[in-house]
Design goal:
Shape: elongated
Structural class: alpha/beta
CATH architecture of the largest domain: 3-Layer(aba) Sandwich
Number of strands: 8
Radius of gyration: 20 Å
CATH topology of the largest domain: Rossmann fold
Helix content: 25-40%
Order of helices and strands: HEHEHEHEHEEEEHHHHH
Largest sheet: 8 strands, mixed
CATH superfamily of the largest domain: P-loop containing nucleotide triphosphate hydrolases
Bound molecules: guanosine-5',3'-tetraphosphate
CATH class of the largest domain: Alpha Beta
């Protein structure tokens, strides 16, 4: 990954998206519903603005009332935004309806709407493309500006969509944003903090709210409280889940990863990691 701490540099993949932008009518900008502010690309925000429709994906993993607050936040910004769950088979029709409503008014009647899906890693771009494409998609061949590589596919609704998503990168505002982005799987490699730090941060978010705490304790069959001794907690969870290393000892790193994966899969139920506020700072950490 490039150096994500530079907010003003447009990276190669983002340049590519800017090229394509001239040929599309709408950008479906996919954000993670659990982290809508931090999973947004600040560099291209202004450029995408006139064409983008925001999809708060993985809404099945986010707290409904907080997602509603985010919808209000984007509405106040004048951006159309919709919650979506690519895993929910019935949500697709609704999304298609919403896209239809946002169709630019000046589009020529006989020309299909052209779309691209874009977003940072792991927010569900490919899953959304697959859902929209379904079994109805047909390759339509080359179009101006896209010589090889990405292909336009014709969708059931008559629209055309690029089969390859636009890859954006998050901006690493501070330590909390790195931890949160790693928790949702959007950051890996050298930029990502160690799994132990991410697990500790997640547990702190969870422990600060009674309902979430109850679900966490239930998930790991823990008795009464989340011990503030992080290593002891990893030992307890690691033993319970047989997350062992050489000599039968609990593997703390593996256990931290296990907790992160359980969060990603929604094992602790719906958890939103940030709420909108005036400054847009993280509430969860
Ligand atoms: P990307 O292209 O933006 O990088 O994301 P991708 O579609 O590959 O999705 C990343 C992971 O998120 C996948 O899980 C995918 O199944 C999951 N996912 C996508 N949309 C949703 C959603 O709305 N709700 C939930 N709960 N999960 C979603 P994975 O474990 O990496 O792969 P898989 O084993 O599920 O195939």
């Amino acid at each position: 990954m490039p150096d994500l701490e530079k907010p003003d540099v447009i990276f190669r993949e983002e340049q590519r998206l800017l090229q394509v932008l001239k040929h599309v009518d709408m950008v479906l900008e996919v954000l993670d519903a659990r982290l809508p502010f931090t999973s947004r690309n600040v560099r291209l925000r202004a450029m995408l603005a006139e064409k983008n429709v925001i999809i708060l994906n993985k809404a099945d993993l986010a707290e409904r009332n907080i997602t509603d607050c985010w919808l209000g936040f984007f509405l106040r910004e004048g951006r159309p935004a919709f919650p979506f769950s690519a895993k929910n088979p019935t949500a697709l029709k609704n999304l298609e309806k919403k896209i239809m409503q946002q169709r630019p008014g000046n589009l020529k009647f006989n020309r299909p709407l052209r779309l691209i899906v874009a977003g940072i890693p792991n927010v569900g771009k490919s899953t959304i493309i697959n859902r929209l494409a379904g079994t109805y998609a047909l390759k339509t061949g080359a179009r101006p500006g896209i010589t090889r590589g990405p292909q336009w596919i014709r969708l059931r609704a008559g629209w055309e969509m690029l089969d390859t998503p636009g890859l954006l990168y998050p901006y690493l505002r501070n330590e909390n944003s790195k931890l949160a982005l790693t928790a949702i799987g959007a950051l890996e490699g050298v930029d990502a903090p160690p799994a132990e730090d991410v697990a500790r941060w997640l547990i702190n978010c969870i422990a600060s709210r009674n309902e979430l705490k109850r679900r966490f304790l239930r998930a790991y069959l823990l008795d009464t409280a989340i011990t503030p001794d992080f290593e002891l907690l990893l030992q307890q969870i690691g033993r319970m889940r047989c997350s062992l290393g050489p000599g039968g000892l609990v593997d703390l790193h593996k256990t931290a990863n296990l907790i992160i994966n359980d969060f990603r899969r929604g094992v602790f139920g719906r958890i939103s990691l940030e709420e909108p506020d005036l400054t847009g700072t993280l509430e969860g950490g």
